[in-house]
Write a structure and sequence with these properties.
This protein has three domains: about 325 residues, Glycosidases (TIM Barrel, Alpha-Beta Barrel); about 50 residues, Alpha-Beta Complex (Oligo-1,6-glucosidase, domain 2), CATH 3.90.400; about 70 residues, Golgi alpha-mannosidase II (Immunoglobulin-like, Sandwich). The chain is about 30% helix and about 15% strand. It has 17 helices and 18 strands. The protein is globular and about 75 Å long. 1-deoxynojirimycin binds next to loops.
């Protein structure tokens, strides 16, 4: 392992600041709240904390619409609070990764306010402006959040591009002044002690030449912008590396939708020219597109074979050349125990949460734990549209139900219950007190009603909890180099198994066998109880050899 690849055996904990811990009783989480909870994170054993955006923002997209890159949102605290957090993390040997959102700004950012004033304003070219075509938008692209990706601006009689909400205008990366403004800002945060960046949709920054219409699938209102992995993206990232990353000992992770392992070898090559790792979405898309016009909105359950094929492909294709993030959850995804596990009974919730953690944490890559995952927090499943805050969910409901009549309201509510981003964003469940110990005030988003049973205080008091299981998995990664570096192989005969996922890791010194039962049934596999092997971790208290009980997970040293 190259010396400066310090992040290779690190474990990241993702904090959604708005929902983690409120310290001043306004119903919104904040930096002091995070500082109060650092002992908890240290106990879990994580190395890096990634914060979702904490900059000033109108919060149209919960902070992914930034109006000032070099300040702290007053809802979260002050710059002094931020500095205190950096110092407190470093004192505990932990690092801080900030969210870098530079595909777009808020429409309230000073650059955009200036840009929309006139066609000759010095910031005009910071954004992507085009005249209309026959009274319509410049091309047929749809926004990720429903509707057209273009907004007409009366003042200068042109349209601007917004791949996300209209309040999130895209920056024009063709303009070197934009790029250098971003690099300066990154260096400014590095000087404040930030240890790295998670880069929001970073592979969308280079738009296709000429901004051509995209293909439109049946029933879709708009064309697909196909903006991922554009013509100059590698040039831009190499330039960023030369101006920023090459000067600091930082870790960078690129959020990269629509990438293949081949693309990832470009972005996250171990030769250190661009990013350290990708955060890709192929395994998150396995339950989507049952109906292409509905995209992620479905109730499809992912068969184990599809999940295994995908995870295995990424393991083998990056081995030795590039680096991947390992994750089940983030602030944009439903809760994994409700999605790939089983939250129907308490027993199955706990067993399946540990099983999924085992499956992922014994792989190669950098694991990310999203707040509450270590407690086995579940989807919230709101019953009324008004309870949802997330604009993606609310817009999708209106577009698919009210505008296009592609689904009825009740079906769409079921889709939201399984896939809305708000499932991840409900407040952290600390204890069984009012508002789950998150705040003394009514929280900005309702707490999951299961908090009296599922909360950190209960988990910390139970040696068998999911929390302590994650703690042990993290410790194993920190003590066994094979988990970071070893070769990956499927167990012979496991290739098409729909019930059990079994693989080995081998670095020439140590060989691990990982066996996970993905089902709620008891099954038997001949390789599941190897003679004389040492059982390193399991989610049952005894070992029944070849017999695998519901959601049983075991890791052996062979
Ligand atoms: C990806 C972020 O994770 C998501 O939360 C956000 O809405 C979009 N990028 C737009 O910034």
């Amino acid at each position: 392992m190259k010396n400066n690849h310090w992040w290779k055996n690190a474990v990241v904990y993702q904090i959604y600041p708005k929902s983690f811990q409120d310290s001043n009783g306004d119903g919104i989480g904040d930096l002091q709240g995070i500082i109060h909870r650092l002992d908890y994170l240290q106990k879990l054993g994580v190395d890096i904390v990634w914060l979702n955006p904490i900059y000033p923002s109108p919060q149209v997209d919960n902070g992914y619409d930034i109006s000032d890159y070099q300040a702290i949102n007053p809802d979260f605290g002050t710059m002094a609070d931020f500095e205190e957090l950096v110092t407190a993390l470093h004192a505990r040997g932990m690092k801080l990764v900030m969210d870098l959102v530079v595909n777009h700004t808020s429409d309230q950012h000073e650059w955009f306010k200036q840009a929309r004033q006139s066609k000759t304003n010095k910031y005009r070219d910071y954004y992507v402006w085009r005249p209309g075509k026959n009274g319509h938008a410049p091309n047929n692209w749809g926004s990720y959040f429903s509707g057209s990706a273009w907004k007409y601006d009366q003042q200068t009689d042109e349209y601007y591009l917004h791949l996300f909400a209209p309040e999130q205008p895209d920056l024009n990366w063709e303009n070197p002044a934009v790029r250098h403004s971003v690099y300066d800002m990154m260096n400014w945060w590095a000087a404040k002690g930030v240890d790295g960046f998670r880069m929001d949709v970073i592979n969308l920054i280079s738009k296709p030449n000429g901004l051509p219409d995209g293909p439109r699938s049946a029933n879709a209102l708009y064309g697909d912008s196909s903006v991922a992995n554009g013509p100059r993206v590698h040039e831009f990232l190499q330039e960023m590396h030369a101006n920023v990353m090459g000067k600091h000992r930082m870790v960078t992770v690129g959020e990269t939708p629509d990438v293949t392992p081949d693309d990832a070898r470009g972005y996250a090559n171990l030769d250190d020219r661009e990013l350290n790792m990708v955060f890709q979405f192929e395994h998150m898309g396995l339950d989507a597109n049952e109906d292409p016009a509905l995209g992620k909105w479905s109730l499809r359950k992912v068969p184990l074979s599809a999940l295994r094929d995908n995870l295995s492909k990424w393991q083998t294709e990056l081995m030795g050349t590039a680096w991947n993030s390992l994750y089940w959850n983030n602030h944009d995804q439903p809760r994994v125990v409700s999605r790939f596990g089983n939250d129907q009974t308490e027993e199955f919730r706990v067993r399946s949460a540990k099983m999924l953690a085992t499956m992922l944490h014994m792989m190669q890559g950098t694991p990310y734990i999203f707040e509450g995952e270590e407690l086995g927090m579940t989807n919230v499943r709101f019953n009324r549209l008004e309870e949802y805050n997330d604009l993606e969910s609310v817009n999708a409901y209106h577009q698919l139900v009210d505008e296009q009549h592609l689904v009825d309201g009740a079906t769409m509510m079921r889709y939201l219950q399984e896939h809305s981003r708000d499932n991840a964003r409900t407040p952290m469940q600390w204890n069984d007190g009012p508002n789950a110990g998150f705040s003394s005030h009514t929280p900005w988003l309702a707490v999951n009603p299961n908090y009296p049973q599922i909360n950190a205080e209960a988990a910390l008091a139970d040696q068998d909890s999911i929390f302590y299981y994650y703690q042990r998995l993290i410790k194993l990664r920190h003590t066994l180099p094979v988990i970071t570096d070893g070769d990956y192989a499927l167990v012979a005969g496991n290739e098409a198994d729909e019930e059990v996922f079994a693989y080995t890791r081998d670095d020439g010194h140590t060989r691990l066998l990982v066996v996970t039962n993905y089902t709620s049934k008891e099954v038997t596999r001949s390789y599941a109880g190897p003679q004389g092997a040492e059982l390193l971790i399991s989610n049952y208290n005894d070992d029944q050899g070849e017999v695998l009980r519901p959601y049983e997970a075991k890791v052996y040293r062979l």
